[in-house]
Request: fold
Amino acid sequence: MTGRSRRAWTLRVAVAAVALGAVAPPAVALAAHAALPVSEEGLELSTDGDAFAPRIDEPLLRTDERIVPGGTSTALLYVRNTRAEDAEVTVVLDTPPSTPLWQVLDVTATAEGRSLPVAESLEVSPAGSRGDQRSVSLGALPVPPGGVLPVRLTFTMDPAAGNEYQSISAPVRLNVTLSERLDGAASEAVDRGPWPLHLPSTGLALSPPVLLAAAGAMAAGLALLLAMRSRRTPSAAANSDPHDRSRRQSPDVPS
Reply:
């Protein structure tokens, strides 16, 4: 590797599961799972914006919370830059291969006034065909030393959702990257999605989320992947991602 060497750390936090409850009318039951340890230098997390720690054990979603048709639930995570230098956070929300669940459950990612729905345009894949994954990026958001970035996920269930959706599952993954800012200048905030990644429709190629069983229903998992790395040098960044050709721009929605 030429130029500045790149340091990378990866961690995975199991946040919660979204279970479709076997009740009438149908409801989404939010079951929680304890978070795995976070041990990244320069990165601390919080669920309330006050108490920060290298790891979080409490769930982002309440264990007794349920979403009925027409209802909404919100998960909120605070990311703090504990470095002495400026950094930037990139937020990307990945949806799984196409599933009928996205016909009734919408997910929106919000940070620093940027808000993007990620599931509204997904189509149901025919049986046996390859589905695709949609990813949206809120762009690179500057965070000063000691600065805090709230990242919000909002789940909304269609008022017309029926019992036929209560046994469907699908994982969703939030990627938060805390990166060094070279020369103290923020990178241009560019939305790189949504775009198809052509993953198998089974979803097994995705990083496995935590799937929790609910009585009489299957669970939809939600996992949170956080990574912290130093930015690449301009020469390294010049190596284009082969998937970039298939990515299409999606405009930001101002607050």
